[in-house]
Specification:
Layout: E1 3-13, E2 18-27, E3 31-35, H1 42-50, E4 57-62, E5 75-79, H2 90-97, H3 106-116, H4 129-142, E6 147-151, H5 159-172, E7 179-183, H6 187-193, E8 196-201, E9 204-210, H7 211-217, E10 218-223, E11 237-242, E12 245-251, E13 263-265, H8 269-283
Parallel strand pairs: 3-7, 3-8, 5-6, 6-7
Antiparallel strand pairs: 1-2, 1-4, 8-9, 10-12, 10-13, 11-12
Length: 284
């Protein structure tokens, strides 16, 4: 499969935290969600991919080239807050960034402003968080970016704004040459949009592959306290007891090893993160 981004054995040691041999691919024409709890290493990995910081080892290949970096106009970066001057008007944003992109499309930018309801004379500081995200997307799309890298862009947005942005991302990848790498805590957005998931925990990749493969690999299990013994608990990740029983996560392949009284049901991305984190704390 043709990959737009290839990360191989990427490592960075900060002493208290280590990003440890991170490896994954983002295929062309798809949206990859990048998930994990706070402090898992998502932002560090993104900074390494963009060349903002230098890794201790490993490699990043963008568009098939290890020498490509964030200055490549094929990359559009969308953060939770834009790096634009607050007192700039929206038209000033175009004046500031367009000289850096030989393929800048002024007519396209004007079209996106109209589509997104962004007034050219309005100042950046007067825009809502959702509008600031849309402004960054408008900039990215106006220099013909092929890869969008998003770091928590929908955090704090209302459901309507988040849904609009998710629609934009789905529309973006209808061009099979374009991809999205989408870091977010809001897994419901990924359940609607992502084709692939990379899950990082404690600086280590614990899963990378299709979203369906992840949600089919695990299931949520529940039962009474007397329904499971100590030996069987080893098949349950993130085991927790409550007043009337227990809950946790099991690999679908191991459900048959649990008593018939234990109930299994489909699991969400949120629950996978919760149970994985709970297990990591127990084993810490």
């Amino acid at each position: 499969m043709n990959n737009i981004l290839e990360v191989r054995e990427l490592s960075k040691n900060y002493g208290a935290f280590t990003l440890n041999g991170v490896t994954f691919d983002v295929p062309r024409g798809f949206i990859m969600g990048f998930i994990g709890p706070n402090g898992a290493g998502k932002t560090t990995a993104i900074k390494l991919i963009l060349g903002v910081i230098q890794g201790d080892s490993g490699s990043v290949k963008l568009f098939g080239d290890e020498n490509a970096n964030a200055k490549n106009q094929k990359i559009g970066v969308v953060m939770d807050a834009p790096l634009y001057v607050d007192d700039w008007a929206v038209r000033d944003v175009e004046a500031a960034v367009s000289p850096f992109y030989p393929n800048w499309n002024a007519a396209g930018f004007a079209g996106y402003l109209k589509r997104f309801g962004l007034e050219a004379k309005k100042k950046v500081k007067e825009l809502s968080r959702g509008m600031k995200v849309k402004l960054q997307i408008a900039v990215a799309l106006s220099h013909d970016a092929q890869l969008l890298i998003l770091d928590e862009p929908t955090s704090g947005l209302d459901p309507v704004a988040r849904d609009e942005i998710c629609d934009l991302l789905r529309e973006f990848v209808t061009d099979e040459n374009k991809s999205v790498f989408f870091s977010t805590h809001i897994t419901s957005d990924l359940e609607k949009t992502a084709d692939y998931i990379t899950f990082i925990l404690g600086g280590n990749i614990v899963f990378t592959g299709t979203k369906d493969a992840l949600t089919e690999k695990y299931c949520r299990v529940t039962g009474g306290l007397d329904d499971i013994d100590g030996e069987q608990k080893k098949f349950v990740t993130g085991y927790r007891e409550h007043g009337t029983g227990f809950e946790g996560m099991a690999e679908t392949a191991n459900v048959e090893k649990l008593p018939s009284a234990v109930l299994s049901e489909p699991i969400t991305l949120d629950e996978i993160i919760i149970f994985m984190c709970r297990e990591a704390k127990v084993n810490d």
